[in-house]
Amino acid sequence: MLKKLLIISLIGVALTNAQTPKIQNSLQNTLERNGKANVIIRFKQETQPILVQVNNKRFDSRGNKISFLKTQLEQLARDSQTEVISILLSSKSVIHFESFWINNKIFVKNASQELIQKIAEIPNVTEIREELVAHINRNQERAYPANTKQDEVQWGVGRIEADQAWELVGGNHGEGIVVANIDTGVRRTHEALRDNYRTTYGWYDAFARVPNPLDIDGDGTHSMGIIAGTRNGIGVAPGVQWIACKACEYAYCDEVDLLKCGEWILCPTTWNGQRPDCSMAPNLVSNGWAVDKGNDFYAEVIGAWHAANIIPIFEVGDGPNNCETVQSPGDYSNVITVGSFDPSNTLKSNSGRGPTMDGRIKPDLTAPGHEIISAGYEGDYEYETLYGYSTSTACPHVAGTVALLLARNPDLTFDQIKDLLQDNADREVGSTLVCGGTNYTTWPNNMYGHGRVNARRALASLIGGFTSVAPEI
């Protein structure tokens, strides 16, 4: 009888562990192989109730709203994480860890199996998994044309008719709007970017904490040039101010650095992480990086951005020439997701296509992403052309267009901006594809979304009487 009870008891424990596993299977495999791993710890207490609370309150300024949000999230993290942090601080070995308030998670570097097992025993810890690594597309070639200086706008800026948007009665160049990107950094001394860099609360290097903006890889500089460049016709919204957070290097972005940037975007600090000032948060953030599809690791960050009225724009991701290749966070419903086309309006072969894993249509829009000239990262007067199929090059075209809309009406909500972009997109395309039961003549579809972004038509619609109800701050 005792033997039978013991067997039943063990089966019960096994079933309980199978039903509520805390340690990710792939993490367990890594620990068995290497003995240590970089991990993310998740807690039972979620941030969503705080976001709802903030959205239901009224504030006298956006800065005060974000400050209140940050304070509430910080308190949640303190209350939830105390026991785990105590274990980390009392560990015999030196433990490097980061506590995050924006999503109530903890990152631990080189955590041992023994340490992970001990943390897993804490009741309010719900998951321990490996740290993710995001990527930036590298299926592209760089070139420095012999003669890149020109008076007219570059083809991508012209194709979305941004220059015509500037000339509308009531048009603008993005004045009064602050744009940000999370990328490889920005060469702030470049002639096309040095005059509109916001020198106060304008830079954070999550990777190495250097005091001034730099870029040793090029993607971030090229991207910011498309959004905000003031020379050589490269910028969609040359009147904006720009700020940047560096989370990526050599085509890779560690999750810990993406989370640091997520917090910094919400409430910027000085370059060394001191003196946060939430009133300096940008109006929008462009993201040219992705992880594999169906991953919600950045959902809390984007939720907090929404509560702070920060518009998130993401690339759809660059993948194989297939349907169902939308990557995360581009597959989230609450981001503006951008695919890529070439000068013939043909969808690029590795521009991610829908549907998403739960059957939604993505991308939302497409934009120029091939043969794009923008600021080079190796010299203050150099301009480089990307000949690849990069949706990270398309994404900033939409970010610049969003800046033009916000400059006309800074009270526009995310949904209003998305409607303006989608309802006024161009639908003359050069592809004959079918994905998820939608083809190139069905709108929206899983290749082009609602069409090719058109800045002039979107801004003209807003100027011409698009109904906007100012959100409660």
TrEMBL record:
Residues 174-451 form the Peptidase S8/S53 domain. It comes from Orchesella cincta. Keywords: Hydrolase, Protease, Serine protease, Signal. Residues 1-18 form the signal peptide. GO terms for biological process: proteolysis. SUPFAM superfamilies: Subtilisin-like (SSF52743). This is Bacillopeptidase F. InterPro entries: Peptidase_S8/S53_dom, Peptidase_S8/S53_dom_sf, Peptidase_S8_subtilisin-like, Peptidase_S8_subtilisin-rel. GO terms for molecular function: serine-type endopeptidase activity. Pfam families: Peptidase_S8. Belongs to the peptidase S8 family.
